[in-house]
Each structure stands twice: as C-alpha cells, then as structure tokens.
Amino acid sequence: MLCAVYKTRKKQGMYLYVVKKGNFDDVPAPLLERFGHPELVTLLSLDKRDKAAGIDKKKLEEELTSNGFYLQMPPKEDDLLSSHREALGLSSTPDVKF
C-alpha cells in the first residue's frame, strides 16, 4: 500500500496520511480546516515496513482503508514546571491567590 504524508505549519509533529496524493475527499472539512494547508512530506510505501513513524503498519492500513486518512498527533510534551515543583516537594500547580 502506498500513501501520501502531509505536514502542517500550525502544529509541529502533526501529520496527515491519505491514500492518494492530493486527495483529501475523505478528510472531514472541519479537520482539514484546523489542519491548515497540507504540505507534502513524502510518498510512503507500507509494504516493506512494520511501522511508519512509530505507527503500527496494521493500524495505519486499517485507518487508511476504513476512513481514507489517518491523523498523527504530536507526542505529548512534558510539563517541566510541574515536574520541577514536584521534585521540590511542592504541589504540581501553584496556589493562585487574588
């Protein structure tokens, strides 16, 4: 199976996989609007892979076959301030007093 991978400038690490290059017919309009202008990253052959960018090949193929697209979200970012506060023995969120 061959698919096209697109990125967005709106959110780093977010990618949209579609079955055919330039074909966004199966992507819901609200999702495509939030995604912004898709920029082609690569054409990807899934035949010789077990994973693609950390995504299980079977899951990706199932999503592409059933929905016509797959949206890869960026990994969750660590909250370094909360981690630091906890290491100091404080609550993870500061007390707010007005």
Automatic annotation (TrEMBL):
Residues 1-85 form the YcgL domain. Pfam families: YcgL (PF05166). Gene3D superfamilies: YcgL domain. PANTHER family: PROTEIN YCGL (PTHR38109:SF1). This is YcgL domain-containing protein GTW09_16040.
